[in-house]
Design a protein that fits this description.
- The complex is a heterodimer.
- By secondary structure, chain A is an all-alpha fold.
- Chain A has 16 helices and no strands.
- Chain B is an alpha+beta fold.
- Helices cover 29% and strands 23% of the residues of chain B.
- Chain B has a six-stranded mixed β-sheet, with helices on both faces.
- The chains are: A mainly alpha, B alpha+beta.
């Protein structure tokens, strides 16, 4: 494969590769800029932020004071440019509610969300890949049907319902797992399963499809003809190639899980970024909301960019297209 | 092999077993709400949770007694009014702060001066800007001068003005923009509990202050530790309560509360609160839908809504229907005003008289407990008034209300737990942005009540304003809110209507 890449580079030149990366990078940056502008504007669509910040029971004088203090009386484009300039230097301002720098709080919460996201991803891969392989080895068998059932259930079941059901059985009825919090690794078990199960179907179906395609290919037939063992064919030759698209899917899904963990973090009181996002919306903490959306978007876009690059590296045809 | 599997399963269960944080066994009362608390300072965190924890960690000069309706001395031993504009407090001499320093007049003067200094940017100025100055007379005597006669002064001194040690904020760190960050100063008070550990947005652990003075109205704290946790999801709070991870929760949805009560696993109490529900009419027709400029239409709506059914069936047994623009438990809140009983026939007759025999269609706005507002819509539909529901966030709705764009808004008001009409009616009927009618008669009467400390004068003035509001049907006062509390059977706890749970009074059964 390495030789193939070299040949491709020689044929198409380094310029093509650099142009591909630059094109993708510029697109990613434009998406980040668009997302941040939209986020910033949308927070003002819901009405006067000064009223939201002042909260219930605030007097008119309190609201006017807050509007002036936070500069909400300035034109929105002026506020946006000022925010963007500071954000580019890593300064997202001060949280209106937590009263500390937004960047410090986001960094602290990101660790928890990363832990949850990674453990959910590991759970999903450990469950989905073997199931996908087994389903491909015996297509339309009972095992395949079982794997399909797992996929359909995972896709159809709302994650909040699955989370609460687990909490009911493992937390309340059997009392073998803690209901909420992040004090020990045991606290991460239920949230990881609830979050990871949702992406299991996609990974499993992709593994199955990839395996089916690879198992029918010429080089596998050749390997069989040469007398290679079943295990060797399956894992050394077939899975290695079939799993390539799964790797890029996993990267994108990881980004999705970082942003999409709001429900799971809220249910299990996991003090992560998703929970912080939800709370910030509730309490109209504008600097925090804007920064979280931006940070998560950047993560998602970065992971998508990496997946593109990975795919392009693995499959030179993508670079041409 | 089977034995091995069983042993493995057993080990797994043992290793994952829920750690026993909670309850009587380790003398720790665990309670939770959905709020993240990052700032442990009663002045720089304007949340209900900090009002509650403020009472645990700090003391004021006085304490409101919800049973007698009077103010008990707390850090003050006694006080004397000098006319309407000054009050002199004699202070206790046996109080120490959590850091070991002794409490005296300097601490009161420092706290008041800190609040009054605008440069310090203490939010919610209304709780302290009634004070003009504080002066030390001797080590244990303080005189507070007022800007104007302020009948709410003692309410604020009780719930809001916590005394800090002199110099408390002086060494506050400086933020990136050069301003002092007072909110990050380590909490030090005189209260029955002191902060032992805090994890931003996750939990705050308070331990009993064994040096707390005796003979005060807060009593002597019995429970060793009180831990606050942030749990956003109400189902998760319930699960934690049932499994012993929590000992106390509130705001339990009615259906869940009733189910828990039936199960008998925990104690469930429905207690009234000072929050009321009301509907405000667009009296001057600014919204472009001018139906409610006609008093008869406002009265028709008032007769059409079955408030009794909403209060008892949806809110809870502690909820009651109200007729005045205030809470019946508040000082000066007379219910002796024009009342609008549930009478759909009368509503239809009034509508016909006003020229709407077939009813009409309009936009109704709400933000809190959708099922209550939907019940209102159902009642209105029964008399031919078709309401289109606009459900919004509080901030957005208030913005629209201030711009006069809402024909009817269904709102609530909690009065900041202040048991006085002065904390609600003047806010809505003194001509401000929230005043739907801007009637000079109500503004004048309320001003009289707000600037007198004579109880009789105040009662008379407020009664006059409340009478006008009811007669003109500027508002339809709906009902008082009630909260469901659920707590461990091990806990001896009594809720109060001011929504400030007194954990320092709680004991184990």
């Amino acid at each position: 494969m390495g030789e193939c890449h070299l040949t491709f580079l020689k044929q198409n030149g380094l310029d093509t590769v650099i142009a591909f990366f630059i094109k993708r990078l510029v697109t990613a940056l434009l998406v980040v800029l668009t997302v941040s502008a939209m986020t910033f504007s949308m927070t003002f669509l819901t009405g006067d932020p000064a009223i939201a910040v002042a909260g219930e029971n605030a007097t008119q004088a309190d609201i006017v004071r807050i509007r002036e203090y936070y500069g909400y009386d300035r034109p929105i484009p002026v506020q946006f440019m000022s925010w963007l300039g500071r954000a580019a230097q890593g300064d997202f301002g001060q949280s209106l509610y937590l009263n500390q720098p937004v960047s410090i709080e986001i960094f602290a919460r990101l660790k928890t969300t990363m832990t949850l996201g990674l453990s959910a991803l590991i759970f999903a891969l450990v469950l989905a890949i073997p199931l996908g392989v087994v389903a491909a080895i015996r297509p339309n068998s009972l095992l395949d049907r079982f794997a399909l059932t797992v996929a359909v259930v995972g896709q159809a079941m709302p994650s909040f319902w699955f989370a609460l059901t687990m909490m009911l059985w493992f937390g309340i009825n059997w009392r073998i797992l803690p209901v909420s919090g992040t004090d020990t690794w045991a606290h991460f078990v239920m949230p990881s399963i609830a979050l990871g199960y949702f992406i299991t179907p996609g990974v499993m179906r992709l593994t199955r499809a990839g395996m089916l395609e690879v198992l029918r290919s010429d080089y596998i037939r050749t390997a069989r003809a040469k007398g290679a063992s079943g295990f060797s064919i399956l894992f050394k030759h077939a899975l290695r190639n079939a799993i390539i698209p799964v790797v890029s899917l996993a990267a994108v899904q990881f980004g999705f899980m970082l942003g999409g963990s709001i429900v799971i973090e809220t249910i299990f009181a996991v003090n992560g970024l998703g929970f912080l996002a939800w709370e910030s919306i509730q309490r109209a903490d504008l600097p925090m909301m804007q920064a979280i959306v931006l940070v998560l978007s950047v993560f998602y876009i970065m992971l998508t960019f990496l997946a593109d690059v990975l795919n392009a590296w693995l499959d030179p045809r993508i670079r041409i297209s | 092999m089977k034995h091995l599997q069983l042993a493995l399963a057993g080990a797994l269960v043992a290793s994952l077993a829920v750690p026993a944080f909670a309850g009587k066994s380790d003398d720790t009362l665990n309670w939770a709400t959905d709020k993240e608390i990052a700032v442990i300072d009663p002045y720089f965190s304007v949340t209900r949770e900090l009002v509650i924890m403020g009472q645990m960690g700090w003391d004021g000069l006085v304490l409101f007694n919800s049973e007698t309706g009077e103010f008990d001395p707390l850090l003050a031993k006694s006080w004397t009014w000098d006319g309407n504009m000054a009050v002199e407090f004699k202070l206790r001499e046996d109080v120490v702060f959590h850091d070991g320093s002794t409490f005296d007049a300097d601490d009161v003067v420092y706290t008041v001066n800190f609040l009054l200094n605008e440069e310090n940017g203490v939010p919610a100025a209304s709780i302290y800007n009634w004070m003009k100055s504080a002066e030390k007379i001797d080590d244990y005597t303080v005189r507070i001068e007022l800007n104007d006669p302020s009948p709410l002064a003692f309410s604020y001194l009780s719930n809001e003005i916590s005394i800090m040690p002199a110099g408390h904020y002086d060494n506050a760190p400086t933020g990136a923009d050069g301003s002092k960050d007072y909110s990050s100063v380590a909490p030090v008070g005189t209260g029955p509990y002191m902060v032992a550990d805090s994890q931003t947005g996750k939990s705050i652990l308070w331990k009993r202050n064994d040096a707390y003075f005796e003979g005060g109205p807060k009593g002597t704290p019995e429970i060793g530790n009180i831990r606050y946790r942030t749990i956003s999801e109400s189902n998760t709070q319930l699960a934690e309560l049932l499994t012993g991870g929590l000992d106390w929760i509130w705001d339990v949805p009615k259906e869940q509360a009733l189910r828990m009560e039936e199960s008998g696993q925990v104690s469930v109490v429905n207690e009234k609160t000072l929050r009321i529900s009301y509907m405000a009419f667009d009296v001057d027709g600014d919204s472009g839908q001018d139906f409610f400029t006609d008093k008869r239409v406002r009265q028709a709506v008032s007769h059409a809504i079955n408030r009794e059914a909403i209060a008892t069936e949806l809110v809870g047994p502690a909820s009651t229907v109200i007729h005045s623009a205030c809470h019946p438990d508040q000082f000066g809140c007379t219910q002796d005003v024009k009342q609008y009983d549930y009478d759909p026939d009368k509503a239809r007759a009034l509508l016909a008289e006003a020229g709407y025999p077939a009813g009409f269609e309009f936009d109704l706005y709400g933000y809190r407990q959708r099922e209550f507002t939907e019940a209102v819509i159902g009642d209105l539909a029964a008399v031919g008034i078709r309401a289109n529901l606009n459900w919004m966030q509080y901030g957005s709705l208030l913005d629209l209300t201030h711009k006069g764009k809402t024909p009817i808004n269904h709102m609530t008001w909690g009065s900041g737990s202040v048991p006085d009409v002065g904390a609600i009616t003047p806010h809505f009927f003194s001509g401000g942005a929230d005043d739907p009618a801007k009637d000079p008669r109500t503004a004048e009467a309320l001003a009289r009540g707000d600037t007198s400390v004579d109880s009789a004068v105040r009662k008379e003035a407020y009664a006059e304003a409340l009478g006008i509001i009811a007669e003109e049907a500027y508002w339809l006062p709906m009902f008082t809110y009630a909260k469901y509390y659920a707590f461990s059977k091990d806990l001896n706890f009594t809720p109060t209507s001011d929504e400030i749970p007194r954990f320092f009074e709680a004991t184990w059964n």
